[in-house]
Amino acid sequence: MQLEQTCFNYKDLRVHIDSPSAYKLFCNYFIEMLTDTYTQAPLIIICIGTDRSTGDALGPLVGEKLHKVCRHAKVLGNLQEPVHACNLEKVLGEVKSTYENPFIIAIDASLGRSENVGTIKISQGALKPGAGVNKNLPSVGDFHITGVVNVGGFMEYVVLQNTRLYTVMKMVDIISLGIMRGLERFFG
Fold first, then answer.
1. Global pTM?
2. What residues in the chain have per-residue pLDDT under 50?
3. CA–CA dist 48, 75 (Å, integer)
4. Torsion angle of alpha carbons 22, 167, 35, 139, nearest 10°?
């Protein structure tokens, strides 16, 4: 697959997991996004989703890979303690009461058009979790990372349940390794 880059009112990167340079593109753009947006503040990575649905497990699986080895950021949301629709507001409240002006990177799965399944996206600004399944949840993040795990538009909960684990795991590997190496390079 080819790298797809689009610019709207902000910069973003879209890369498909089957691109031979997906990891390198992701890592380099992650560092560029940090360079452009990060302020000297506590860095928090919030990995949103649940392990009860294959498609929605992207966030907790990334969190699982990061939370024990990530020394430059506090990672919230993993398989043991997921951050999901039922506790997101509580977690955000705890973050804001614990850290002064935290810089938050949000990670979540998303649904999209069939030609975009397998695409990872990094964008400036907040993520609106739950939008694909018509949930009204608070926006999260100074910038965000999403993975299009399956098609949207019809029976979203069933679609999330029937998402290929292979697609999710390939995204998890690219995102988690890209974040770990990106943070190491960014912070020296």
1. 0.91
2. 1-9
3. 11
4. 150
